[in-house]
Each structure stands twice: as structure tokens, then as C-alpha cells.
Write a structure and sequence with these properties.
three-stranded antiparallel sheet, alpha+beta, homodimer, 8 helices, DNA-binding, Jelly Rolls
DNA sequence: CGATCTGTTGACTGTTATCAACTCCGGTGG
DNA sequence: CCACCGGAGTTGATAACAGTCAACAGATCG
């Protein structure tokens, strides 16, 4: 990924949340940023730091990990196009550690850029706000996931969410997603033990819902996975009429197929 | 509570999040609202509704309940001064049901008021944004609570959070809090069965951490409760130098006492 | 080519869910 | 006034899901 196109996934993301004019999106081209390559489990922001930059994910996955809990509970996962610490624009102190799940590329963008952007473009300001609101909706959904689903449905739901969020920025359209994370990472995100995560994934494989070979996961039965997880993508806040967006459109962007 | 002072707890809340001038707070006096009295478990916003008003909680508790999960999972709890559906200012469609926990008084404020307020006062706009960001932080914390604490610590943590949020708007300064909710409500918020919630509360009582008689709960050993829950109020985003706020200041506003 | 991390399996344990019964309480109507 | 009723709280017995421990296999990487 070239630095010049650092903002392309972000543009996809914002366009999926709100109607923004091409002129607005072009403002992103002015984005000054430092590109950083991270290795797996590297920490990029530490609990208690005061952030002065936004961390825009270009490639790979990032996760927020709770600093206190002994089991290293993961509280959220970022996909390309996400700004991991958007809220630090207004409250710089970060809580939890931001760590890379697998090899990852991020763009570090000074807070000032987004503050200026918000001032210059009301549409972009609104889109960023919707991004924050979506973060809230996703977090609320994680509460439901941990609270009311068993291990199998929990893992299935997480995979549905990641798949759909990737597809929203033009990735994994063929239901093949990079999976550089470990089973223990997945366990930490679903609040189950690594051993149980292993058995759960085996179960998903046994039911022919997915394959996980090396660093690539393939969802082989999307409708069944959606049904098992009782996954309803409405909470992701993607505009209903948004299917003109990302380029490589090989699969459907809805999960309605299997919701009876 | 008189309608004329509908905004007082909100003013406390906003002042605890950001520095706002008295002039800014006086803008709240223009707030036109409809006061509504709710009975226990009454639904005020339904999953799928499009909100045109913000629901400002004046007295009692509100909770968001997931619409899908069979066990009626509660995903968040509001205390007086909270705006339950702040995010609907920018994304009107509500997800989940907003229900009253016990008898409750709310002020329904048209979206327009807050949009105008944001335009007229940058400080208030910022305070509202911080309120939204705090909602996110709280939600993230619930993820940790469900994910990495056992039933006892989970209930303890929820009670710590509610206590501190009440104290932030001048309530429960003597660690006596209204508890009109049922044990089943508490169970739904902590994702445990009602039976287990009962046993957990008995355990808390047995350890002399709290009393729960009728509709009032008394925290009898706050430091021990904080320690048990490993509660750290930093995530609530209350300004460190904020102790000049609410009037009836009978108790300390920190939980540091017992964090070794 | 050995060290280390990840994945896999089996046996056992423990927390919590479920089921069922019973009590207590406040309200309601005869 | 009392009988009844429904909801909330309480208790015990049993079951299920998931955690822990331990050992080994397989991959990856220096």
C-alpha cells in the first residue's frame, strides 16, 4: 500500500456512513501522516498515554486490550479504514493498550488534521461523528455478544462482524479473510479460554462453516454462519443504499439471506 | 421535581465533563420539553423507532435492553442527568428497547434544541460530544465487566459504577441509593441468571458490603466493594479537578481509597 | 536444527444455569 | 376483614458449559 493512498479505505468507510461529496473526500488527500509497520502483538498505544495523533489502520488488524484484566481481554477490533483512537481527538488520555494482531500497517495522523477537516467540511465532520457513533453501537453489540451467546455463537458472531466490516471497505468480498491472529487472540476477544476457543473453531470447521489454513480464513457457508450467530448487520450503521462504493464487489453486502 | 429545573442534573453532568461557563449552562434554561412519568418496566423507545426527541432522565433509572436476545440482556443503564439516546441526534434509528427500571421521570427534548445549542455554544457542543465519548468508554467497560469478572465482582462493579455516576450529579452522596429495580433486572445487566443474582447479592450482604431493604440500597463498605470489583472510575471521564460541583457533598468522589 | 510459539487432545474441576418448590409481600376484590 | 393472587425473593438438587492443567504435536524461525 502506497502512502499516497493511505486514505482510500478511510474514504470508503466514511462514504459508507454518510453522504459525502467527492470534493469532501478529496480533502483527505492533504493528510500528512507517518506510516508505521507493526509486527504481531506490538503495542502502539499504551494505557495512560496522551495521544496527539490518530491511528488510522491501513492494513491488518488492531485491537484494544484491557490493561487491568489478567486474561488480556480484548474490547474491540479495528479493520482497515478504522481510526482506532478517534475519541482521543477530544479526550487524549487512552485507556487500554492498542496492539497489532498480526503484521499491520498504520498511518499516524496528527489530531490537527482532523480538527481542521471538521472545520472545513461539515459533511466530513458529520461522517467522523457517525464513525464514533458506530464505535458505540459496535461496543454495545459486543456487550450483547459476551452477555447472551454461548462460545460457539460468540465466535461465529465475531467472525461475521469482521467479515462484514472488511467487505464494507472492499476487502474479503470472496469471503476469504486474512487471519494473522492466533486462536488465543480470538479467545481474548470472545472471553473464552484458548483451549475452548480451539474446540469451538474445530466445531465450526466440522460443520463446514469455515476453513482456517495458515493466515487465511475462508467462510464456506456464510448463510449458516449468520444464522448460527444470529447476526444482524444493522448496528454497523452502513447506509442502506450503499452498494456503489468499494470497487471489487464480488459478494453481497447484506446478511439478510439467512435471517428467517 | 419541577419542570423548571429539568436541566439541573444535566448541567451538573456536563460541567463534570468539560469546563463550561455559567453563561453556557444558562442556555439550558431555554429547553422546551415534555415531562413524562413512567412506571416500572414501561417501554419508552422501541427497537426500530426513529427518535425525534432526546430522552433526558430526571429521576430514576433507564436501561437499554437488547431486542433480540431471549434473556432480555440489558446493555446499559442511565442515571439522572444522562441523555439516554444522545446518538439519535445524528442517527435517529434506535436499536434495542429503552425501558424504565422502577418509577421514572424523563424530559423529552426535541432534537432541534440540542442542535441549536451546539451551534450557539462551542463549549456545550464539546460537552455533549464528551458525553457521547463517555458513553463509549462506559460501554467498553461493560465489555470488560462481562468478559473478565465472575458474577460477584460483576455485580459489585455495576453497583460501584451506578453509585459513582449518581454521586457525580449530587445523588447518593451518603451511599444510600434508590434501588427500585428487581434482582432480575440486575441479573439481566450482569448477564447472570436471576437465581444466581440472588445468591450473589446475598453474598455481598453476608460480607457486610451492602444492605438492600425495600427500594433503598446502602453501600456499607465502599472501599471493600471497590476492591472486590477492582473498580477504577477513570473511565467515567470526570474531570480530576471537579469537586466544586453538586451541592450536597457528603462523601468523597474518588474510589482511590481502596486501590492498593 | 533446536527453541519457541501455536495448535491439539484428554481428564478433571468449577462456576453458573436450570428446574422446581416454597415463602413472603403488596394489592385487589369479595 | 380476609381470601386470593401474582410478582419477587429464596432455597436445594442437578446438569451443562467452560476453565484449568498437563502433555504432546506441528509449525515457524532464527
Amino acid at each position: 500500500m502506497q502512502a499516497g493512498f493511505a486514505f482510500s479505505k478511510l474514504a470508503d468507510r466514511l462514504a459508507s456512513l454518510a453522504t459525502v461529496a467527492a470534493d469532501d473526500l478529496h480533502l483527505l488527500a492533504d493528510m500528512a501522516s507517518t506510516i508505521a509497520h507493526l509486527s504481531s502483538h506490538q503495542i502502539i498505544l499504551r494505557h495512560g498515554d496522551d495521544a496527539t495523533q490518530c491511528c488510522l489502520l491501513l492494513q491488518g488488524y488492531l485491537s484494544w486490550q484491557d490493561a487491568e484484566s489478567t486474561d488480556g481481554q480484548i474490547t474491540s477490533i479495528c479493520v482497515p479504514g478504522d481510526i482506532a483512537n478517534l475519541e482521543t481527538l477530544y479526550r487524549p488520555r487512552v485507556s487500554g493498550n492498542l496492539i497489532a494482531l498480526g503484521p499491520t500497517i498504520v498511518a499516524l495522523v496528527p489530531h490537527r488534521f482532523f480538527h481542521d477537516l471538521s472545520t472545513r467540511s461539515p459533511a466530513m465532520s458529520r461522517a467522523l461523528l457517525l464513525m464514533l457513533i458506530t464505535d458505540l453501537a459496535i461496543q454495545r453489540n459486543w456487550t450483547v455478544n459476551l452477555g447472551s451467546r454461548d462460545a460457539l455463537a460468540r465466535v461465529a458472531h465475531l467472525l461475521c462482524e469482521i467479515t462484514m466490516r472488511l467487505q464494507n471497505v472492499g476487502l474479503a468480498r470472496d469471503f476469504r479473510l486474512p487471519s494473522p491472529f492466533t486462536q488465543s487472540d480470538l479467545a481474548a476477544a470472545c472471553s473464552i479460554s484458548p483451549v475452548h476457543a480451539n474446540r469451538t473453531i474445530q466445531e465450526l470447521r466440522r460443520c463446514n462453516l469455515l476453513q482456517w489454513q495458515g493466515k487465511t480464513m475462508t467462510i464456506t457457508d456464510w448463510p449458516a454462519l449468520v444464522r448460527l450467530a444470529r447476526f444482524d448487520p444493522a448496528y454497523l450503521g452502513i447506509r442502506p443504499n450503499y452498494d456503489d462504493g468499494p470497487p471489487s464487489h464480488l459478494g453481497p453486502l447484506t446478511a439478510d439471506v439467512a435471517l428467517a
